[in-house]
Design brief:
Helicase, Ruva Protein, domain 3; D-Amino Acid Oxidase, Chain A, domain 2; FAD/NAD(P)-binding domain; 3 domains; globular
C-alpha cells in the first residue's frame, strides 16, 4: 500500500468516479472509508500529506467534551460519547481508556464537578469507559504526586479516551484502500470541471512530479478543514467565508512533570478553555490555547504569549514549574470552527455542518476527531442523495479499522501498529540492521521508517518523522539530529540520490525548527 500503487489506479481508471474527496484529514479520510465500504467508486486527493494540518495536532483525546457539557451542548456530548465508544471498539490498538483527575481547590468544586461527571457517565450508557468517583486529597496525590498540595481539597476521577491522531489517519487511509478507494497524498485540486454550471469533476496536479489530470466525478466532497473556504472560492469566488479559524497550541514535557498514568483536567483557565496535562508516548502533553487567527498556514507557529500562557497555568498546578528549557516540543494547530456571531472562539460550537453550493459542491465544516465517523456518514449520505447515487447503507459502525487488535499494554513502543507489528518484525527478520533505533532519545526503529515507505504512503522525511512516527512531537531536537540518517535510509529504499537527501534534510529542518522552544 504505497503512493505508486494508487497512482497506477488513478492512471488506469476509465470513466466517472462516484465520489471525489478533497482533503486527507479526519473528515476526508473518514468519508473515503465510508464511501468505499458502501461500494461507491471513491478517490481522495490530499494536497500535502495525510493529517498534515489540524488532524495531527490535537490534544490526542477521544472524548465527549466536558467543556461542551458545561456549555449545555447536550446533543454534541451525547453524540461524541457514543462515537468515542465506537472508535474504541473499532480501533482498540489506537484508543485507550485514560483516567483523568479534576483537582478541587475550592469547597464547591467537588460536588459541582462530581455531579456533572456522574451525568457524563450516564450519558455514555453502555459505551462508557468507567464510573467517575470522588477522591480524597491523599488519593489524588497518590495518583498525581506532582500536583500542588497546597489548598487541595480532593478531586474527582473520570474516564475518557486517548489516541494517536496521525496514526489513526494513516490507518483510515489503509482501511479505505482495502475497501477499494484510491487514496493519494501530494495531489492538489487546482479547479473544478463543470457542465452546465454543475460540478462534474476536478482538475488535479501531482505535487511531486507535476503531471496534471482531469478527474470526472458524480459527487465532489470538500473536506479540507481550515482550507475549506479556499476550495469553496475556487467554485464560487463570491461565496462568503464559512470558517473562523482558531489556533491551539500544546507543549510536550518530560514525564517527570506528571508521573503515573492519570491525566489532569483543569476545568477553567483565564480564557475560558479547559487545560489538559495528558500522558502520551511516555511524555506529557499540556494544552491548549484558543487564539483567533486570520492567516491560515499549513504549518502554524505557536505565539510567545501562547507558550507563556500554558507555562503559567501549568505552574499553578504542578509542584515543579516548567520553563522554556523543559519543553521538548511545541506544536500548533488550527481549528476549523464554523463561522459564528460569537466573538470568543472558545464559545463556538464544535458541531459539524454540511453545505451544498449552487454548483453542487458538498462541503463538510467544523466537527472534531471524536465524531469523524458520524461526520463522514452524514456527508456521504448528503453527497449520494445529491448525486442520485444508488442507495447503499453505511457500514462503519461495526467496521474494524486497519490494524485493529485488542491490547491491554499501551506501554510498548509499537502498540499502535496493531496487526502490522508482525509485518515490521518480518522486515527486521530479513534485515536485522533495521532493528536499530533512529536516535537514542526516540522510540522508533529503522524498520518503522521502512514500513512507512513501503506500506503507508510516506514519501518525505517529514512524513516519517512527523506523522508515521511522532518523533517531532516527542523531542524536536533529537528529531533534527535523526533526520540525516532517516533521509539516507529513505533514499536507499526509494532509489533517490544525494541531492534528494540534501533537499529533504533542508526542508525538514525548516519545519522542525518551529517546534523548538526559544533558547
Amino acid at each position: 500500500m504505497n503512493r505508486a500503487i494508487h497512482q497506477e489506479q488513478l492512471n488506469n481508471f476509465k470513466g466517472t468516479w462516484d465520489i471525489v474527496i478533497i482533503g486527507g484529514g479526519a473528515s476526508g479520510l473518514g468519508a473515503a472509508v465510508d464511501a468505499a465500504s458502501r461500494g461507491y467508486s471513491t478517490i481522495l486527493f490530499e494536497r500535502f500529506d495525510f493529517a498534515k494540518g489540524t488532524s495531527s495536532r490535537s490534544t490526542k483525546l477521544v472524548h465527549g467534551g466536558v467543556r461542551y457539557l458545561q456549555q449545555g451542548n447536550i446533543k454534541l456530548v451525547m453524540e461524541a460519547l457514543r462515537e468515542r465508544g465506537l472508535l474504541k471498539q473499532n480501533a482498540p490498538h489506537l484508543v485507550k481508556n485514560q483516567s483523568f483527575i479534576v483537582p478541587n481547590y475550592k469547597w464547591w468544586e467537588g460536588p459541582f464537578y462530581g455531579v456533572g461527571l456522574k451525568v457524563y457517565d450516564w450519558m455514555s450508557g453502555s459505551l462508557g469507559l468507567g464510573a467517575s468517583e470522588w477522591l480524597s486529597t491523599e488519593e489524588v496525590l497518590k495518583l498525581a504526586p506532582t500536583l500542588d498540595a497546597e489548598g487541595l481539597r480532593g478531586g474527582v476521577l473520570y474516564h475518557d479516551g486517548q489516541f494517536d491522531d496521525a496514526r489513526l489517519a494513516v490507518n483510515l487511509a489503509q482501511t479505505a484502500a482495502t475497501a477499494g478507494a484510491t487514496i493519494l497524498n501530494y495531489y492538489a485540486v487546482t479547479g473544478f470541471l463543470k457542465t452546465n454550471g454543475q460540478i462534474a469533476g476536478v482538475m488535479v496536479k501531482d505535487q511531486l512530479f507535476g503531471k496534471e489530470y482531469e478527474v470526472k466525478a458524480k459527487a465532489v466532497i470538500n473536506a479540507t478543514g481550515v482550507f475549506s473556504d479556499a476550495v469553496q472560492h475556487m467554485d464560487d469566488p463570491n461565496r462568503p467565508a464559512s470558517v473562523s479559524p482558531s489556533q491551539g497550541i500544546h507543549l510536550v514535557l518530560d514525564k517527570s512533570f506528571l508521573p503515573g498514568e492519570a491525566a489532569i483536567m483543569i476545568p477553567h483557565t483565564d480564557d475560558g478553555r479547559v487545560l489538559f496535562a495528558v500522558p502520551w508516548h511516555n511524555k506529557i502533553i499540556v494544552g491548549t490555547t484558543d487564539t483567533p487567527v486570520e492567516n491560515i498556514s499549513p504549518e502554524p507557529v505557536a505565539l510567545k504569549e501562547e507558550v507563556d500562557f500554558i507555562l503559567h497555568h501549568a505552574a499553578r498546578y504542578l509542584t515543579k514549574d516548567p520553563g522554556q528549557a523543559d519543553i521538548k516540543s511545541i506544536f500548533a494547530g488550527l481549528r476549523p470552527l464554523v463561522k459564528s456571531n460569537t466573538k470568543k472562539t472558545a464559545e463556538i460550537s464544535r458541531d459539524h455542518h454540511i453545505t451544498i453550493s449552487d454548483s453542487g459542491l458538498v462541503s463538510i465544516l467544523g466537527g472534531k476527531w471524536t465524531t469523524y465517523r458520524r461526520m463522514s456518514e452524514d456527508v456521504v449520505n448528503t453527497a449520494a442523495v445529491h448525486a442520485q447515487l444508488p442507495y447503499k447503507e453505511c457500514v462503519t459502525k461495526d467496521l474494524n479499522i486497519h490494524g485493529a487488535q485488542p491490547t491491554d499494554n499501551f506501554n510498548t513502543d509499537d502498540y499502535y501498529y496493531g496487526t502490522d507489528i508482525s509485518g515490521i518484525d518480518a522486515l527486521i527478520a530479513k534485515v536485522p540492521g533495521l532493528a536499530e533505533h533512529i536516535h537514542p532519545a526516540l522510540p522508533y526503529t529503522k524498520a518503522m521508517v521502512a514500513w512507512g515507505v513501503k506500506e503507508e504512503w510516506a514519501v518525505t522525511v517529514e512524513d516519517i518523522l512527523s506523522r508515521r512516527t511522532r518523533a517531532i512531537l516527542l523531542d524536536a531536537k533529537a528529531t533534527l539530529e535523526a533526520a540525516p540518517g532517516v533521509a539516507s535510509l529513505m533514499a536507499e529504499l526509494m532509489g533517490k540520490d544525494d541531492d534528494w537527501v540534501k533537499a529533504e534534510i533542508g526542508s525538514f529542518t525548516r519545519v522542525a525548527e518551529k517546534y523548538l522552544p526559544e533558547e
